[in-house]
Every structure is written in C-alpha cells, then in structure tokens.
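Teaching assistant's notes for section 4

Start the section by putting this record on the projector. Ask students to predict, before seeing the second block, whether Alpha/beta hydrolase will look compact or extended. Collect guesses on the board.
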Amino acid sequence: MHSLQFTAESSSNGMHERDFTVGGIPGVLWSPVSSAADRAPLILMAHGGGNHKKHPAMSGRAQRLVTGCGFHVAVIDAPGHGDRPRTAHDEAEIAELFRARAAGEPEGPIVVRYNDHLAELAVPEYQATLDALQKLPEIGTDGLVGFWGINMGTAIGVPFVATEPRITAAVFGQHWPDVLAEKAKQITIPIEFDMQWDDEHISREEGLALFDAFASKEKSLHVNSGKHKELPRFEVDSAVRFFARHLGGAVTATA
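Reveal the predicted structure now:
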C-alpha cells in the first residue's frame, strides 16, 4: 500500500493547498486555512481531458467546497496529463483525435476509447489515493466522501464509484454511455448529472441514456441549452449545495 507524501504547501484565499504524491502519482489537497486539521468530509474530483489537477475549473470548484462548506478536496493528475508524461499510446490517440477534428469526423468514438483506457489506469490510482488520504486525521477512515467529475472525469468516475463503497454522493455529466452504462447500473448512491441540450459531440439521446442507466433512487438531471463547453457556471453552485446536503456541510455566502 502506497503512503502519501506531501511535497509543497501554501495558503491563499481561505484555502490551505498541499501538493502530494501517492505511489508516484501527483495530486493536490485543499483544506480550510482556519481548520486544516479539523475533521471534515472529503470530495475527490477528476479533471477533464487535456487539463490537470490545478486547472482553474478544479481550483475554482475546490474554492467553493472548501470556503463554502469546510470540506477537504483532492485531485490527482490523470495518466498522461498534468505532471505525468505521455506514453506513445497517449500521443497516438491524441493525434488521431486532432486528425478527426480537422477532418470534421465524429470525435466520440476516439474519446470514448481513449478515456476507457485512461479509466482502467486511473481507477486503482484513485482507490490508492483515497486509502492514503483517509489515513490523515483530518479525514479519517469513517468520514464521508463524495466524487465530482465531468467529461473525462465522468469516464474515470463512473467505474471508480461503481466499485467504491466509500463514496456517498457523486456529480457526473457530459459523456457518452457506450462503456459507462453497464457500470452506471451498479451505482445506487445519490447523483447529480449535467448535460448540454445542444452538445455538438454528445447527442441528447446519448446523454439521456447514460443518466437513465444509473440505478440511484435519488438522481437529478440538469439540462441546459448550449454547446459542449458552455456548461453554465451556476451548475457549480448546484453541485456544492448537492454535496452539502448529502455530506452534511452548511453552504455559506462565499459558496
């Protein structure tokens, strides 16, 4: 079992930021500055394709959860992303994606295939990261844990949550159902699901099919007009309230 090693730390804007590695996998843990050692729920997040653990989307969501709810938030770099080197397989898949995009061909089949490959690698990494983080006294083995991942984060998150009983609630969205629907059928925890009605890559039927596959008794579908990259910022507010409701946080005005 890999142990967690902190490699750097800083504080700003009400958040205590600690870089770490678990078995060589780089990650970041954000906690409230005023109570970094206090017990609180943990939200694991997964970033989107082509991004990294400290992408503004990740740090922005963490800011809401940390300063608004008092939660701890952690993200690791996906394989071939951020501070992790690309393999020859990564380079080939990315080149094929750019080729299809330039030719006006559907990107979905390539993204689904590549994300499925990344998920096979990332799921055990997230399990090891959760194991290590729960050894921290401010998180603990009996603390509540949520998961938040959109796009590629959903490709990683659905198989992770399907096999991880420690997750209490999850936010997913914006992905094809192809390889995820069967895994979604294994998920029964509360979920919130985002999709764009005018997504140029993922059809309405595909988005609805993935949402419908979840076996959760409580699941909310959030549909907004707009294209793939136009998910409204207010959906972050909704996700924060969702996690506060299920993990016991009280959302403050800063959230």
